[in-house]
Design the sequence.
């Protein structure tokens, strides 16, 4: 394979390759600096130009015209329209297609980019197109704020640039050098890794990897207040011959679980922690959005669900808790998170929502009800132990699932009792076995 790097052809077969994605009109000199530093680290470079208006300040290996074509748009027309928002959106879509093709052709072992809001939007859109495990490093002036729109459910490493990306100076140089060293090391490791152990090679259908003999994957949701129960379920599923991936119910964790379930990466899901639903419904800060708890059911993936941690809503630091709930029993979970107990009315609303989501499932589905408490805080003797509120949730759930194909299993213990986790795992194993017959 031969690519033109700058003006001199270079043979890249067998080399570790890092792809640089950026606007070479506004950040060309900075990208030239990155390229030279990567070459000194023994890494070959493919530069993708996502600029539109000005002339590129360094040569590109994939031109802006090619990027626009990959998005199905003519560059000159895009330039003539003069719409910055449309240009950013188009070039982001084209860059995503370009890096996808480069990876499929074996010409990408890592991606590095730098930029402000526009450059970050374009580059991270491209990075999100790549499988998990492929090294992705984004140096951005936006990285000190909320990066969830850029990262999504991808494994993107965000580095704060401290100063804006405007030249290489005494402050930015060491930061950019660290980014180069980081992506070079990651890319070399990724390129050298045996194919069978690369996370990026995960297939669909719950196979857990390219080798059909590998253990099938199970997804489990967990939070600090449900750890003991979920750990028991994880250990039991491991005994059954599965590999369990645990997702922190922190908003991002739930979105990632949904994204991977939608790709049918899991043989089944143990969704035992649903506090993200409470945050979505009642204004908490760790919501996973309105589509939480839909992907597995939509894809027909066997699932066992429990209303774990629906006895609380998570807010920010204590002084940020909304006035409407300050008269309740507010607990400090950690310096960044405060929690509030859900009321019986709120629990009934959550039960109805949970039932509606489960009724939409197309695959084997069961719900396990821990009758003695939904979290460490809600267990007997805990500050949020409220059997009446829990029963309001259970009653609404039973009513909402009446006449459906969803099984309800009531277990007379609290969620963090190991026996509950084992029972949920055994139930999921039966659902998976029945579905495979």
Sequence:
């Amino acid at each position: 394979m031969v690519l033109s790097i700058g003006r001199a052809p270079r043979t890249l077969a067998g080399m570790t390759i890092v792809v640089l994605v950026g606007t070479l009109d506004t950040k060309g000199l900075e990208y030239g600096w990155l390229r030279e530093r990567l070459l000194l680290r023994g890494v070959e470079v493919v530069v993708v130009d996502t600029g539109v208006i000005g002339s590129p300040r360094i040569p590109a290996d994939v031109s802006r015209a090619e990027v626009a074509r990959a998005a199905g748009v003519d560059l000159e027309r895009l330039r003539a329209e003069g719409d910055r928002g449309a240009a950013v959106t188009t070039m982001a879509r084209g860059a995503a297609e370009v890096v996808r093709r480069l990876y499929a052709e074996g010409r990408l072992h890592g991606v590095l980019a730098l930029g402000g809001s526009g450059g970050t939007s374009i580059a991270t859109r491209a990075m999100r197109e790549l499988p998990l495990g492929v090294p992705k490093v984004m140096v951005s002036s936006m990285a000190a704020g909320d990066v969830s729109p850029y990262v999504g459910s991808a494994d993107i490493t965000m580095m704060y640039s401290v100063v804006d990306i405007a030249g290489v100076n005494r402050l930015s140089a060491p930061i950019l050098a660290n980014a180069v060293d980081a992506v070079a090391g990651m890319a070399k490791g990724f390129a050298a890794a045996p194919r069978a152990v690369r996370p990026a090679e995960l297939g669909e259908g719950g196979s857990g990897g390219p080798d059909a003999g590998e253990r099938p994957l199970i997804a489990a949701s967990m939070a600090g207040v449900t750890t003991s129960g979920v750990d028991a379920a994880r250990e039991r599923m491991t005994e059954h011959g599965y590999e369990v991936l645990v997702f922190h119910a922190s908003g991002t964790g739930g979105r990632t679980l949904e994204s991977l379930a939608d790709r049918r990466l899991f043989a089944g899901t143990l969704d035992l922690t649903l506090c993200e639903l409470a945050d979505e419904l009642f204004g908490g800060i760790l919501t996973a959005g309105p589509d939480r708890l839909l992907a597995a059911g939509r894809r027909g993936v066997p699932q066992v669900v429990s209303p774990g941690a629906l006895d609380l809503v998570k807010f920010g630091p204590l002084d940020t808790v909304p006035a409407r709930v300050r008269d309740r029993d507010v607990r400090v979970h950690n310096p960044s998170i405060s929690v509030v107990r859900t009321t019986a009315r709120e629990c009934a609303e959550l039960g109805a929502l949970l039932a509606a989501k489960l009724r939409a499932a197309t695959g084997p589905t069961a719900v396990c009800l821990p009758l003695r408490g939904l979290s460490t805080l809600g267990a007997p003797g805990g500050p949020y132990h409220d059997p009446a509120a829990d029963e309001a949730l259970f009653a609404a759930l039973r009513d909402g699932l009446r006449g459906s194909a969803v099984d309800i299993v009531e277990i007379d213990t609290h969620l963090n009792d190991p026996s509950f986790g084992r029972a949920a795992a055994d139930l999921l194993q039966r659902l998976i076995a029945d579905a495979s017959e």
Summary: Residues 1-11, 199-212 have pLDDT under 50 and may be disordered.
